[in-house]
Automatic annotation (TrEMBL):
Record function comment: Catalyzes the reversible transfer of the terminal phosphate of ATP to form a long-chain polyphosphate (polyP).
Enzyme class, first EC level, given as a word: transferase
Protein name: Polyphosphate kinase
Signal peptide: none
Native source species: Sporolactobacillus terrae
Keywords carried by this UniProt record: ATP-binding, Kinase, Magnesium, Metal-binding, Nucleotide-binding, Phosphoprotein, Transferase
SUPFAM superfamilies: Phospholipase D/nuclease (SSF56024), PHP14-like (SSF143724), PPK N-terminal domain-like (SSF140356)
Domain Polyphosphate kinase middle residue range list: 125-305
Length: 713
C-alpha cells in the first residue's frame, strides 16, 4: 500500500457534504445575521438537502440494488454510506425544525410576522380562507380515492400531499377508506391573511385545504389527515452512445424522471401508525428513509415567505452596490480589451461588461462570429437576446448549450430551441462529457487582420446569480489564448483534437496531468530549499489522486492553504502527512464559487483561474478550462484577494484534525468579514466614480452613447 493510501486519511464525500450543509444551517442560527436572511439560510439548507437526496442518495441506493460493493477511499461501502447518511440526515432535519420552531418562528412573531395554523385564526381570517378556498382552491383540487378500481396515483416529486382516512357518514360499519389530495403547485403555498394594523400574517395552503377536506368527500367524515411528501430518484440516465438525437432523448428522460423510485418520505410527526403504514405499502419506501418532521413539511417555503414581506428594513442585508466599469459600457469594449487584460470580480463588480461584450459584438459590423458555452442562464437572459440579435444581423453564432446541466435541462432545451429558430448554430458538446467551461469568443475583422476577443470565467453566464455568487472572469484578446479558444470550439463542434494548447488547460485531456506537474514542481522546489507553496480556492475537493498529491507535497514541506466551500475529503493535521495543510471554508452572504489555483514556482508565482473543482467528475468527465493570469497587476489583485479571504475570521470555519469545522478564534484579533469588506470597497469605488463623473459633467459636455436610448441596452 502506498504511503498515502490509508483509509483514515480520507473523509467520505457524502458525509463531508452534510458537514457543509451544517455550516449553512449555522448561518440560520447566527444571531448576528439579519432575521429574514436567517430565514432564507434555513430555506437553502432544505433545498440543498432535497437535491442531495434526489441525486447522491439515489445513486447510492442504485449501487446497493445492483450489488456494487466497492469501498470509497475512506473505506465505506455504499450500504455503510447510506446508514451513516440516514443517521446524519435525521439529525440535521431535527436541527432544522428546532431552528424553525424554537428560534426563527418566535423571532418572527416578535416582529409581528406570523405563520399561523387554522386554530390560531381570528374570525375575519377564517372567513377569508373559507372564501379563498371556495373561489381559488376548490376548482383546482382533485381528490383521489384508492381502491380496487382506482390505483394509487403518481405522487409527484417534492409535491405536498394530504393523506386521509375517511368513512361513510351514519354507516354502522366503521370501514376506513384511504384518500389522498395533492396540494396544487399552481397556487401560492404561502397565503397572506387580512390582519390588524402593524401585523403581517400568513397561512400555508395545505392548512386551508385540510380545513375543507370534508367538502371534497361529501357524505363522508374525515377521521384523520396528515401531510406527506416524497422525493424521487431524479438523476437522468442517458445513453449518449446509442442516442441519435440527444435533445429528444433528454426530453423523454425528463418525463420518465417524475416516475423515479421513491427514496425519501417526509411525514408530519403526529401521523398515526395506521396511516403511515398505508403510505409504506403504496410508496415502497424503507423505514430508514422516512422522516417525521415537527412542523411544516418542506421548509423551502420560507424563501417565498420572505419575498412576501413588505418593507423588511433591517431584517435583510443592506443593499450593496457593485462597481461598474463604465468605460467598458460607454465606449468600445474592443478598444478597452486591446489596451490590456481586464479582470472582473462578481458580485463586487457588475456583470454588465460580460453582457456588453456580447451586445456590442451583436451589432458591430466588423464582428464576424460569436461562439459561446452556456451551462446555466437566467430565465430572461440578456445574453441570449443579444446572441439572437447577432444571428439576425448576419453574424455566425455558435452556442454550446449543455442539455445535461442538472435540474436546468428543461430550461436549456427551451433556450436551445429558441436559439436555433433565430439562426444560431446550436451544439450539445461531446458524447459522454458535460461541457462545464465558461467561455465566450468574438471574432472580429480589423485593419491588421482577424482578431479574437475572449471572456473566460469561473461561473455561469447567468446575470441573476452573478448578484450573489462570487466569481472571477478575464476579458482578454491574447493571441495565443485566442488560438486555443478556437481549438476548443472546434473540438466541441467537430472531431478536431489539437496535440497541445498554448495557454489554456483543458479537462479531461490535460488538466489532471498539468496540476500534478505543478504540484510535483513545488515538491522539487521544497526539496531544493526554494520557496514552495500551493494556495487554492474551490467548491469541492474529493479527487483521491489530487488529495494524495497534496499529501506528498505537505510531507515534503510545501505549505498548502486551501479555501474550500463545500466537500473536502482531505484530512488535516495528520502527523507526517498533512501537517502543512490548512483548510478554510467561507459560508456567508454570498455563495463562494470562484476557483483559484496558485503555485509558488520558486518565487515567480503562477496564478490560474478555472471552471473546475478538484473532483473526479470535473477532471475526468467534464470539459473544463483552467486559464493563466499573466498580467502582473491582475495577478497581484488575485493574490491580494486570496490573502484577504485567509484573513476572514467571521464567516470562516477551519477544518480541524478531528474532521470537524470550527469558527476561528478571534481573541485579540480585529473582526474581519471578507465579503462585507469587499462589498464596502466596491460601493466606495462606485461613489468615487460617480462623484468624478458629476464633476466632469459640470464642466465638460459629454456626448451620450448612441446606444444609451436603445431599450435593449
Amino acid at each position: 500500500m502506498e504511503q498515502f493510501d490509508r483509509q483514515e486519511y480520507f473523509s467520505n464525500r457524502e458525509l463531508s457534504w452534510l458537514l457543509f450543509n451544517e455550516r449553512v444551517l449555522e448561518e440560520a442560527r447566527d444571531k448576528d445575521n439579519p432575521l429574514l436572511e436567517r430565514v432564507k439560510f434555513l430555506s437553502i439548507t432544505a433545498s440543498n438537502l432535497d437535491e442531495f437526496f434526489m441525486v447522491r442518495v439515489a445513486s447510492l441506493i442504485d449501487m446497493v440494488n445492483v450489488g456494487y460493493d466497492k469501498s470509497d477511499p475512506s473505506g465505506m461501502k455504499p450500504e455503510q454510506q447510506l446508514a451513516a447518511i440516514s443517521t446524519a440526515a435525521h439529525h440535521m432535519i431535527a436541527q432544522q425544525y428546532t431552528t424553525y420552531n424554537r428560534m426563527l418562528k418566535k423571532l418572527l412573531d416578535e416582529k409581528n410576522i406570523h405563520i399561523l395554523d387554522v386554530d390560531e385564526l381570528a374570525q375575519k381570517q377564517l372567513d377569508f380562507i373559507d372564501h379563498y378556498f371556495n373561489r381559488e382552491v376548490y376548482p383546482v383540487l382533485t381528490p383521489m380515492a384508492v381502491d380496487s378500481s382506482r390505483p394509487f396515483p403518481l405522487i409527484l416529486n417534492k409535491s405536498i400531499n394530504i393523506a386521509a382516512f375517511i368513512h361513510k357518514k351514519n354507516s354502522q360499519i366503521q370501514h376506513r377508506e384511504f384518500v389522498t389530495v395533492q396540494v396544487p403547485n399552481v397556487l401560492p403555498r404561502v397565503v397572506k391573511l387580512p390582519d390588524q394594523e402593524g401585523h403581517t400574517s400568513f397561512i400555508l395552503l395545505e392548512n386551508i385545504i385540510r380545513r375543507h377536506l370534508h367538502q371534497l368527500f361529501v357524505g363522508f367524515d374525515v377521521i384523520e389527515s396528515a401531510c406527506y411528501r416524497v422525493i424521487r430518484d431524479m438523476d437522468l440516465e442517458v445513453d449518449e452512445e446509442d442516442t441519435e438525437d440527444l435533445l429528444k432523448e433528454i426530453e423523454k428522460q425528463l418525463r420518465l424522471r417524475e416516475r423515479g423510485n421513491v427514496i425519501h418520505l417526509d411525514v408530519e410527526a403526529g401521523i398515526s401508525d395506521r396511516l403511515i403504514a398505508k403510505l409504506f405499502d403504496r410508496l415502497s419506501v424503507s423505514q430508514e428513509n422516512v422522516y417525521r418532521v415537527n412542523g411544516p413539511i418542506d421548509l423551502t417555503f420560507l424563501s417565498k415567505l420572505v419575498g412576501k414581506i413588505e418593507a423588511p428594513g433591517d431584517m435583510v442585508y443592506s443593499a450593496n452596490r457593485p462597481f461598474i466599469q463604465y468605460e467598458l459600457l460607454e465606449h468600445s469594449i474592443f478598444d478597452a480589451m486591446r489596451a490590456g487584460d481586464i479582470f472582473l470580480h462578481h458580485p463586487y463588480e457588475s456583470f454588465d461588461p460580460v453582457i456588453e461584450l456580447i451586445r456590442q459584438a451583436s451589432r458591430d459590423p466588423q464582428v464576424l462570429a460569436i461562439k459561446m458555452t452556456l451551462y446555466r442562464v437566467s430565465g430572461h437572459s440578456p445574453i441570449i437576446r443579444y446572441l439572437e440579435k447577432a444571428a439576425e444581423n448576419g453574424k455566425q453564432v455558435t452556442v454550446l448549450v449543455e442539455l445535461k446541466a442538472r435540474f436546468d435541462e428543461e430550461n436549456n432545451i427551451n433556450w436551445a430551441q429558441k436559439l436555433e429558430k433565430t439562426g444560431c448554430h446550436v451544439i450539445y458538446g461531446l458524447v459522454g462529457l458535460k461541457t462545464h467551461c465558461k467561455m465566450a469568443l468574438v471574432v472580429r475583422r480589423e485593419e491588421n487582420g482577424i482578431k479574437r476577443y475572449m471572456h473566460f470565467g469561473t461561473g455561469n453566464y447567468n446575470d441573476i446569480t452573478a448578484h450573489f455568487y462570487t466569481d472571477m472572469g478575464l476579458l482578454t484578446c491574447n493571441e495565443q489564448m485566442g488560438i486555443d479558444a478556437s481549438n476548443v470550439f472546434n473540438m466541441l463542434s467537430g472531431y478536431s483534437e489539437p496535440p497541445y494548447f498554448h495557454k489554456l488547460v483543458m479537462a479531461p485531456l490535460w488538466l489532471r496531468d498539468t496540476l500534478m506537474d505543478l504540484i510535483d514542481n513545488e515538491i522539487k522546489n521544497a526539496q531544493d530549499g526554494k520557496p514552495a507553496f500551493i494556495r487554492a480556492k474551490m467548491n469541492a475537493l474529493s479527487d483521491e489522486g489530487m488529495i494524495k498529491a497534496m499529501y506528498r507535497a505537505s510531507a515534503a514541506g510545501v505549505k498548502i492553504q486551501l479555501i474550500i466551500r463545500g466537500i473536502c475529503c482531505l484530512r488535516t493535521g495528520i502527523p507526517g502527512v498533512s501537517e502543512n495543510i490548512d483548510v478554510h471554508s467561507i459560508v456567508g452572504r454570498y455563495l463562494e464559487h470562484s476557483r483559484i489555483y496558485m503555485f509558488g514556482n520558486g518565487g515567480d508565482t503562477l496564478v490560474y483561474l478555472a471552471s473546475a473543482d478538484l473532483m473526479p467528475r470535473n477532471l475526468n468527465r467534464r470539459v473544463e478550462l483552467m486559464f493563466p493570469i499573466e498580467n502582473a497587476k491582475i495577478k497581484k489583485t488575485i493574490i491580494d484577494l486570496f490573502d484577504l479571504m485567509m484573513r476572514d475570521n467571521i464567516k470562516t470555519r477551519v477544518l480541524g484534525s478531528d474532521n470537524h469545522y470550527e469558527k476561528t478564534d478571534r481573541r485579540g484579533k480585529i473582526p474581519f468579514n471578507v465579503q462585507e469588506y469587499l462589498a464596502k470597497m466596491a460601493a466606495q469605488r462606485t461613489i468615487r466614480r460617480e462623484d468624478s463623473l458629476r464633476e466632469r459633467r459640470t464642466f465638460i459636455p459629454i456626448k451620450g452613447n448612441e446606444d444609451s436610448q436603445n431599450p435593449d441596452h
